[in-house]
């Protein structure tokens, strides 16, 4: 009986690994960095990975238990990946928790602001939030309309995908135009 618990965990690990790989590949689409004004920097990559995680997390909020469990494990994998990346950048063991706390706060703040704009259908508010988060030091605003439009399309695309695709780690995101 106890061995069944381990098998389920292993199945989830394969599902989480497959889905996380798809999500990270989506965050790395060159169009984001070449035409949608996302800087190809460590923080630009964090912003895009956060963005696709938020879209996936939003899709799974209406899933049954298995989809929500997968989503939580994927978010956990995301934060483990960030922790690993911070360490690779040379941040000391003492500095990692402080950075992780800050990045987690940034992630959940983005979840709230992007969700509010998406839920209200306000593309301009989403573009403004994207600009504020992706270009916090910029004196002039960047046009983030294309990225906001992609997010609305990706949200619709994910919403149309079946529970089975979510639960098996087979969900996809559309290509960036």
Automatic annotation (TrEMBL):
The lineage of its organism: Bacteria, Pseudomonadati, Pseudomonadota, Alphaproteobacteria, Hyphomicrobiales. InterPro entries: Ubiq_cyt_c_chap (IPR021150), Ubiqinol_cyt_c_chaperone_CPB3 (IPR007129), Ubq_cyt-c_CBP3-rel (IPR014569). PANTHER family: UBIQUINOL-CYTOCHROME C REDUCTASE COMPLEX ASSEMBLY FACTOR 1 FAMILY MEMBER (PTHR12184), UBIQUINOL-CYTOCHROME-C REDUCTASE COMPLEX ASSEMBLY FACTOR 1 (PTHR12184:SF1). Residues 35-171 form the Ubiquinol-cytochrome c chaperone domain. Pfam families: Ubiq_cyt_C_chap. Transmembrane segments: none annotated. It comes from the Bacteria. This is Ubiquinol-cytochrome c chaperone protein. Coiled coil: none annotated. Signal peptide: none annotated. Belongs to the CBP3 family.
């Amino acid at each position: 009986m106890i061995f069944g618990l381990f098998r389920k965990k292993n199945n989830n690990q394969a599902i989480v690994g497959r889905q996380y790989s798809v999500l990270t590949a989506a965050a790395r689409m060159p169009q984001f960095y070449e035409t949608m004004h996302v800087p190809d920097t460590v923080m630009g990559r964090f912003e895009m990975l956060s963005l696709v995680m938020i879209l996936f997390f939003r899709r799974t909020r209406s899933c049954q238990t298995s989809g929500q469990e997968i989503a939580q494990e994927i978010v956990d994998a995301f934060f483990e990946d960030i922790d690993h990346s911070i360490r690779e950048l040379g941040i000391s063991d003492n500095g990692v928790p402080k950075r992780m706390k800050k990045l987690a706060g940034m992630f959940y703040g983005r979840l709230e602001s992007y969700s509010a704009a998406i839920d209200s259908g306000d593309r301009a508010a989403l573009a403004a939030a994207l600009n504020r988060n992706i270009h916090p030091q910029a004196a002039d605003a960047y046009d983030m309309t294309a990225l906001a439009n992609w997010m609305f399309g990706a949200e619709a695309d994910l919403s149309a995908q079946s529970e089975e695709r979510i639960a098996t780690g087979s969900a996809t995101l559309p290509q960036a135009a």
